[in-house]
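Translate structure to sequence.
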């Protein structure tokens, strides 16, 4: 590899490509990534000049990264169609709307400043999964590039086409007062307009673009952001609060009393609402999600099935696609609506629209709708540090230990483990519906820990203590990002 090219192999994650810009990847490295992606697209589509939709988020350096990426794509013979400043879902939508062959969105989503990355996909509505990522890494690092000469064109005002598509299909009858928080990220130029367009009264919070993120990262799992939304909801007597991440594919929701509702619970009430209209449907949820789906009376009465699957927007998107599920819900706030509700990809604004439909249909306050769900005690998503090169091995060992604990009928807080799910790390459940999860993070050097109990807060904590004890014994775990 040419000495001037810098590209850290660890940046090729399970389903996202992310690097610290200049430290782990430089401009030439990004161009090589473009060459690798262009080559991969040509190999997969069997076309000499496939059309690739490209967009970028509002970080100070995203545009220069997009320019370097396009240079690589063009050198392989790809024809680039640049939609400009975008949300990830707008780029996904553009692939359908303009009938293009692939997408490349320059974004590091909600990661801190300094990070960059590319969300990419070839088959419509899907993004790279581990197999495609591995292939891309091999082509890029070993420079197995195709050479060609592509063309480039700017698609003007595509953001209006995207906004109108969401607005025109989704008008609501009831006036809903919504706080719309964007953490100064790119969603600020989209979400308020769209939600106003469907008929909401919108109170904007940090919707002006500012790539320094002066208050907090635009991340709906960030407690600082959630607290700011909660305060705005209470101060304005709003019906609902929405928080969008940096590239607009996720949403966090705050009810009319200012309480955060974990996204898996939002998913469940949306699934309940949809199940009455679309009986016999399938829903996909990730392993971090509440255990309530599997036993939900309304879903079961409407003959709907819920499948627990691997965490990660790429995994859930594919599973929704393969199973022809009506929708998929991820604990982190990625929601996926398949036909006839959407194109199967994650769009945080479309997710917020579905919450508005729910409020409009049910004519109840959000707090009332949520109180109809059985109460559970759930931890936030906790991420203890664990090196990228060690995390998967650590999890494999813990999977073995938990399987042994189940086989030996070892008692944890007076109960035996009665079910172990290993599609993604290990999720172990107890008779009372309590459960714990340990998995490796796909985009950071850390593990991911979640526990939930329908029984008590103490039980939730006891399961966490049990997990934390196992983790500390490995000697490979650092600080937690947050802890209960």
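Result:
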């Amino acid at each position: 590899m040419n000495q001037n090219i810098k590209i850290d192999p660890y940046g090729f994650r399970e389903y996202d490509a992310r690097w610290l810009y200049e430290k782990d990847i430089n401009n030439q490295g990004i161009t090589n990534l473009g060459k690798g992606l262009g080559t991969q697209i040509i190999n997969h589509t069997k076309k000499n000049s496939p059309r690739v939709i490209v967009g970028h988020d509002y970080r100070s350096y995203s545009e220069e990264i997009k320019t370097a990426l396009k240079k690589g794509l063009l050198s392989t013979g790809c024809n680039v169609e640049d939609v400009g400043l975008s949300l990830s879902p707008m780029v996904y939508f553009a692939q359908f709307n303009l009938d293009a062959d692939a997408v490349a969105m320059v974004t590091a989503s909600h990661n801190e400043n300094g990070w960059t990355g590319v969300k990419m996909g070839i088959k419509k509505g899907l993004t790279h999964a581990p197999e495609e990522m591995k292939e891309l890494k091999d082509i890029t690092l070993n420079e197995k590039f195709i050479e060609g000469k592509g063309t480039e064109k700017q698609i003007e005002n595509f953001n209006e086409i995207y906004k109108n598509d969401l607005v025109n299909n989704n008008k609501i009858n009831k006036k809903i007062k919504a706080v719309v928080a964007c953490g100064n990220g790119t969603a600020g130029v989209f979400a308020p307009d769209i939600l106003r367009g469907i008929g909401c009264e919108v109170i904007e919070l940090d919707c002006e673009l500012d790539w320094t993120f002066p208050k907090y990262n635009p991340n709906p799992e960030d407690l600082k952001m959630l607290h700011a939304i909660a305060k705005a909801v209470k101060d304005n007597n709003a019906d609902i609060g929405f928080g969008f991440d940096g590239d607009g594919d996720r949403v966090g929701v705050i009810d009319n009393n200012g309480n955060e509702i974990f996204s898996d619970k939002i998913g469940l009430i949306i699934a309940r609402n949809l199940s009455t209209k679309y009986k016999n449907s399938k829903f996909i949820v990730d392993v971090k999600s509440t255990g309530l789906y599997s036993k939900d009376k309304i879903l079961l009465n409407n003959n709907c099935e819920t499948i627990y699957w691997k965490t990660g927007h790429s995994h859930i998107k594919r599973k929704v696609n393969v199973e022809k599920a009506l929708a998929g819900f991820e604990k982190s706030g990625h929601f996926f609506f398949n036909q006839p509700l959407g194109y199967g990809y994650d769009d945080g604004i479309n997710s917020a629209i579905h919450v508005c439909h729910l409020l409009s249909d049910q004519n109840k306050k959000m707090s009332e709708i949520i109180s109809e769900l059985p109460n559970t005690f759930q931890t936030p998503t906790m991420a203890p540090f664990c090196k990228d090169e060690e995390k998967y091995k650590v999890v494999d060992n813990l999977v073995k230990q938990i399987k042994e604990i189940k086989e030996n009928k070892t008692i944890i807080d007076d109960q035996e483990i009665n079910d172990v799910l290993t599609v993604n790390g290990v999720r172990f459940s107890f008779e009372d519906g309590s459960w714990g999860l340990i998995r490796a993070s796909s985009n950071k050097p850390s593990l991911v820990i979640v526990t939930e109990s329908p029984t008590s807060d103490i039980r939730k904590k006891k399961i966490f203590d049990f997990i934390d004890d196992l983790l500390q014994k490995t000697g490979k775990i650092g600080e937690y990002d947050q802890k209960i």
